Each structure stands twice: as C-alpha cells, then as structure tokens.
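Let's study today's protein:

:::
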Amino acid sequence: MELYHSLPFFSYLLGKCFKKGLVGKGLLLLMKLGFTVGVSFALCWLPFCTDVEQILQVFRRLFPVDRGLFEDKVANVWCTVSVFFKVKAVLSAETQLKLSFALTFLTALPSCIKLTLQPSIKGFKYALVSCALSFFLFSFQVHEKSILLVSIPVCLVIHEIPFMSTWFLLVSTFSMLPLLLKDGLLLPYIVTTLAFLTVCATSFSIFENTSEDDMQLKLFPTSIRRCIPWFRTFSKVIRSSFLVSITLMGILTLMSATLDPPQRLPDLFPLAVSAVSCLHFLFFLLYFNVIAIWESRDSRNQKKTN
C-alpha cells in the first residue's frame, strides 16, 4: 500500500515546497521532507538489519520476481494480454520486469507531475487513484485483492464524482468474483452490491448527476469537440455505457455461478471476468488522469467567474 500511494504524497509535498520557493521556507520544508523520509525508512528497516538473510528475505517478499509476472486470473493488463500474446513464454523474466516497471512508471507520471507543479488537495486525491490504478494494472505480481487499495482513495472522492466513483466500486467488487465464488460468498456479494447501488442512487442521486460538470469534465470535452463534433453526446454515451456495463457484469455473474465451463476452456469465466474488469479499469485510468490534469484549470476558471 505504501508503494501505491507514496508517489502522490511525495509529489504533493514536493510541490508545496517548490511553491514556497527553494530559498527560505521552501528549502527548509524540502530538507525536513528528506529527513523525515530517511528516518522513517531507517526505522522500518532497523528490525531486519541484524542479518543479511533477513534483508534478502524482505526484498524477495517486496519484489516477488521469482513468482512470475502474474498469477491466477487477476484483472490487470498482463493477464488480459496473455489471452492473445503469451507474455511469460515470449519475454524473458528480466524483460518482463523492465517492461512492467516502465509502463507502471509512465502511466503514474502524468498526475504526479501535475500535482508537483500545481499541488492541491483535490488533485492529490485524484493522483492517489491514478497511481494506485497504474500499479494494479501494470506492476509485477499483483494480487486480485489489490484492487481494494485503489477503492480506498476512490471512496474519498465519491461525494465529488458520485456516478463515476460508484461505477468504479461496482466493477472493483465484480473483478474479485472468482475469489468470492471460491469462498462461497455469492449471496453476500449480490446482496451487498445491490444494497450499495441502492444507497448510492438514493444518497448521491448518481443517475441524475451524469452531466460533464458532475463528472469534473467541464473543459476537457469542450476542447475535444473542436476536433470531434459528435462528442457533444458524451454524457449520454457514459450513461449508456454504464447500463451496458451493469448488464454485462450481471450476465457474467449469472453464468459463472450457474454454468460449467467447456472442458477445453476450464478458466473461461474467470478469464472473462478479469478481461472485462481490466477494460473498465483502463477506461477509469484514463478518466482519472484527465480530471487530475484538468482539475486546476477548472478551479482557476471558476475563480475568474466568481
């Protein structure tokens, strides 16, 4: 969890330091930040520094390279791509590791750069979601339950973007369906999902708050329309996509719970759940990066209007 969310924290604090200037208060804050990080790191590692083997064991736990790029049917890019391109068979372990690191770093970078240049609490929360999603989708050896580390910061913005946050949280729970079925939790999953959707529909009026303003996309679609005129129906497309998404998740849940997969394709349903969830998460990664990058522009325009 620390690795998922440390980049936005560092970017926000670094941006605050630069905002105050590198001479005087800014430099002092930067030194305090570096000292605090160094001391915290040393304290965390102190219990393991008595023996070299213990240090190596911690490294193996933190970076489980020997276990391969992914296990089971996790809803990330590597599992989905492996349906068409056997990454593990074609690429060496070293290449897989480098590729995973590069894609994770590059997809997490935009929101962190924006947060460093223009630090704000709102942008910080969006960057938390974007970075956590980047790590889940592209990093090495991700567990299915790691999507919960993305869901936590999404809960922080559910009052700001209720429709998109509710949609994401529904998909994140659905992505763990194979695990839930394995543990015999189908009924609790269905009941809690329907209850959550009902609460969000009544408390946040999610089906009424689907305009571009409600989704924090006031300026971005305006810019896109200059090149793509049909983008005027963006809100309608999003609402229709949500209905299709809910229907598809319901059908896959029903099929996974009631049907036996073909003998030649024993992992058909778990893989379908993972692939569908992964496509959703890629869409949400793009969405949260867009609102993270455009957030400060909206804020400045609102101030000018006021």
Notes: Residues 2-43+65-305 form one domain. The CA atoms of residues 81 and 179 lie 21 Å apart.
